[in-house]
Specification:
By secondary structure, this protein is mainly alpha-helical. It contains 12 helices and no strands. It is globular, with a radius of gyration of 18 Å. Residues 24-42 have a biased composition (Polar residues). Residues 1-46 are annotated as: Disordered.
Length: 263
Amino acid sequence: MGTSKPNIGPKGISSPLPSWPDYNDTNNEEGSNLQEEINNVESENELKPWSDVKRSYTKFIKDPSKTSFKKLTANYRNANGGNKTLAKSSFGGRKGARILLRFLSSVSQKGFEEACKEFHLEDLKGVSTEDAINKLCFLFADIDGTDEGSAAKAAAIETISLLYENYEVDSNNINGVEEGQVLEYLEIYISNYIFERLSIEVSRALESDKFTKDQVITANDILKDYIQAEVELHFSIKDFSSSTIREQNTMVTEILTQAYSMI
C-alpha cells in the first residue's frame, strides 16, 4: 500500500496501552473464560491430518490455481476441526476484530479525531504517515505474541494502514464513515487475518528447502488474492458498541465461522 510496515514493538513485553472505556472490562471478562476455551480448542485439535495440508500446499505452490486453492483450504479446515473450531481458536483474531469494530463505531459516531481521543491515542497531527500508523496500531498492542496472535496483528496493521491512508487523502472518507464502510474495513481485516494465519500454519507443514523463496512468495500472493475474493460477509453490526462483551464475542465468532466457510 505504499507505506512501510509499522513496528508494533517487541513480543513478550507488557503493553503500554492505556485503559479506555470497556477496555479493562474486556480483559477481565475474557480472562475468566480464556483458559477453559483454550482447553476445549486444544482437545478438539488433537491429532489432525496435517499430512493432507502439506500435500495440498505443495500442489498449490506448483500450480496456484483456483482448484488447488480450494483443495488446500478444504484440507486446512479439516485439519483444524472445521469452521467453528477455527473460529473458536482465533483468540487474537476475535480480539482484533472487536477492537477494530469498537474503534470504527466511535469514528462513525464522533469522527476520526474524537475517536482517537476517546481511545487515548496521541495527537496524529503533523506526524509522518508511518508514525501515525504506528500510533494507531497500539490499539492492538495487547494481542498476544503467538503465531495466531501475530496473524491478527499483521491483519490489523494492514487494515489500519488503509484506514489512515484513506483519511489522509480525504478526511471526509473517514469522518463520514457509514455502516457499509465499517463492514468493508472489517471484511478486509478478516480476510487478511485468515490469510496470515493460514500461511503461517501451512508453511510450518512444508519442507523449508522444497521450493525457492520466490516460488513461495508468488504462491502466497495468489493465495491472499483468492481469500480476499472469496470472503464476502453478510451481517449487521448495528449497536455493536453498546453490546456486552459476551455479545460482541459471539458476533465476531459467527463472523469468522462464516468467513472460514467461504474459502
